[in-house]
Amino acid sequence: MAKKQALIKFTTNRNIHPHYYDYATAVQHVKNILKQKIGTELNLYHAGEDVHTLFETMHDMINENDVDVEILSSVYDNVSASTIKFTIEKNYYVIPSISNNVYYFRKYDVAMVRMPIYQNHEDFEEDFIFAKNDESLIRFINEMIAMQRQSMMKGITVFTDTDEGVVRHREKITQQIPREEVLLSEHIKRDIFRAIDEFFLKSGEFFKQYNIPYKRGILLYGNPGNGKTTLVKSIAGSVAAPIVYWQITENTSSYSIQEIFETVTKMAPMILVIEDIESMPDYARSAFLNALDGATSKEGIFLIGTTNYPERIDPALINRAGRFDRAYEIKQPDESLRCLYLEKKGIKQFLDEERFLYLVDKTKGLSIAQLNEVYMSIALQWHYEEPIDIDQIVQDLLENHRRTVKQEWDSDDYVKKVGF
């Protein structure tokens, strides 16, 4: 399409609207920098609301010192152009800021700028993309999305809804959890992993062969501490696909829902995990249901919802086909699972076979997380006192759990025990 003449042109004359002058001055300086540094003028494009993926990919490239992206200049001289980062290894490092720098991708003749805009009524940031032509821009976007998908497969991408919008960060999978270490009843574990494998193996060939829509949704529910998170981590470590972990908060809105589904659709096939799905705010539920029902919004997405309180879930989520196909209860471990877990933890270094079996029986009704605490308490008691009082350890744990659930922290007897 031929480029048309603009009705209003930017000049240094400040008689034009002051807000436009302030805005256009910054943009014009970027255009001048680009022409000066690369020797040609690039066209300005509106970045749109779904451009976050491009900036996330650029952020990864900066972290990895990718030579395909270079900084031509910062925009404002007295606005920071570098950011201090802190790693899980507790090391500090400095990288260029996404904001206030002009980034250029010479391979594509494309530049990207997240620029602070200062006006008298508010300050904000806006994203700009400059490209030689439409074709180079489209090629750039497609390749950046492909790069982002590859990058996301190096860990779990966590989306958190905040009052400033959706915040993203990447978490490395520091410990692979083999499927055999997931403590669930065998038929549930078989069903879930079989569905996962068929979804991601051979590009969903199973779904095409049997004319099944290429999307899947499962809901994991049950008391906390029984392995829902462990199951998700095991799935994440065993599939070659991006994993997005979405944390719903009171700030979840129709806008954040739209942004998240737009992002994950581009990354498909992939897994979207929604933690504590019952906490979806009432005012956002309609938008969420609409996103689940969209014709293409779930294509290629394996959706996993988790909840500790299934009774609080909107019935519309699970009473309509195409939202969640199956619901699995993650129950308290039975005797065989308690025996297996405690044995794997190494509890037999402290107990003979008779006392071990007695402990397994006494811990009936405890969760996996509580069994872990039983192991910790026994190890501490053995380390400092050697004689192990199984009855007292289990009783104290059950009492602590009862008071936590009922929020009964004010009795004099218990205050003396905890030392407050």
UniProtKB/TrEMBL annotation:
The keyword ATP-binding applies. Residues 214-334 form the AAA+ ATPase domain. Keywords: ATP-binding, Nucleotide-binding. The lineage of its organism: Bacteria, Bacillati, Bacillota, Bacilli, Bacillales. This is Putative ATPase YjoB. Belongs to the AAA ATPase family. BCS1 subfamily. The keyword Cell cycle does not apply. InterPro entries: AAA+_ATPase, ATPase_AAA_core, ATPase_AAA_CS, Mitochondrial_chaperone_BCS1, P-loop_NTPase. It comes from Cerasibacillus quisquiliarum. One of its GO terms (molecular function) is ATP binding. Pfam families: AAA.
